[in-house]
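**User:**
Everyone, produce one record:

**Assistant:**
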Amino acid sequence: MSLTSGNEGRTPAESNFEILYEDNHLLGIVKPVNVPTQEDASGDPDLLSLLKEDIKERYQKPGNVYLGLVHRLDRPVGGAMIFAKTSKAASRLSEAVRSRNFDKTYLAVVHGTPPQRQSRLINTLLKNERTNTVSVVAKGTPGSKEAILDYEVIGSAKSGEDLTLVKVSLLTGRPHQIRVQLSHIGCPLYGDQKYGQSYNKPGQQIALWSLYVGCPHPVTKEQIHLTSLPPDEIPWSQWSRQTYEELARLGSYL
């Protein structure tokens, strides 16, 4: 038996977030766009702190609230995300990530069309901490890490614009990985000023969404399936809601 998206737990008060799943061990939510996952140099309210405060208020908990971060989404990215509510759950989920037993599927709208309908991209990435940018470098470059993803072309924009909807499955979790690797093959993300500045206009929202997160429950071992559909706005509205619903449904069978 598998556990699917939806609020599986009972909460004593309404949450400030859209909850996909909750029990004593896990919390699955829809991450809002443009909120940093954890505290950064901007000093803006971060998701981890906001969720801890949300739990504290809903359950009227005294003292500090534990919430473990086991995977991250870039600040401009929204969608399905899961957190650990105990240190034991955090340890077991982190091991699932390391053993690649933690599935992450994204949707991206890119400029142009990838060279193949389906392919695996393997690159070596290096992050510049000073500029917070990532680049593709030669294998063996000091400080670099291997990045692997699989992509599949879903379809072109119905408006005739040179935009393509792509499904991406991450096999590694590197900073800015999807954005950098797709830009490297000549298909930068819609709205990405950092890795596709010549294609995009200031103010556009990056079209990258966490569609699906799947992992074994840290205690019961049953499979958790969390799905979140992108917002019904440009450029996502270039494809039907039925398309997204079908992709989410297929994700739960990965």
In short: Residues 1-11 have pLDDT under 50 and may be disordered. Helices lie at 47-59, 87-98, 177-184, 241-251. The radius of gyration is 18 Å. The chain has one domain: 2-248.
